[in-house]
Amino acid sequence: MEYPILGTEPLPVEFANTLYGGVDCLSTPELAAGWFAEMALAAPAPEAARALRDAVHGLLDARSKGLPLDEAQVETVNAHAAAAPTALRLEPAGDGWESRWAETATGPAAVLGRIATCAVELLAGGAPLRRCAAPDCGVLFVPQHARRRFCHPTCSGRTRQARYHRRRTEDPA
Ligand SMILES: [Zn+2]
């Protein structure tokens, strides 16, 4: 299966996008294992992953629509963030410094905690969230600039093509 992984988005956003176009990419243990493998993450228990994903998806979706956050979903994210050991380390990188997850935060038990912690930071930071404007897409993303409307250039290209096609078929010259 081809997973809807943009490769450009924060971890919780990629995670939320496992619910995409009516397909749940975490619906079976095999599918879930495949997604976590593609993200180079240890695969956690599938049921727990799906529960956290539903909460994260709900919260990011609400944010993208300007709706208030659901308290139960917030609680689920907070519980996952608290349950797993996540530790950020400051480490030298080239001429500067970067934050890296400590070894304790990379095992299967910690992966969901790490995703939840990232979701807490993302939502607290007030990052804008948007849904791709392509009618057949709707993937969530964080717009790097205010005018970005599509998750990926292929989506904007496809939409332009569809518009062109429609114009041609609607106005036969
Ligand atoms: Zn798209």
Automatic annotation (TrEMBL):
Gene3D superfamilies: Jann2411-like domain (1.10.3300.10). PANTHER family: BLL6575 PROTEIN. It comes from Actinokineospora soli. InterPro entries: ABATE, ABATE_dom_sf, Znf_CGNR. This is CGNR zinc finger domain-containing protein. Residues 129-168 form the Zinc finger CGNR domain. It comes from the Bacteria.
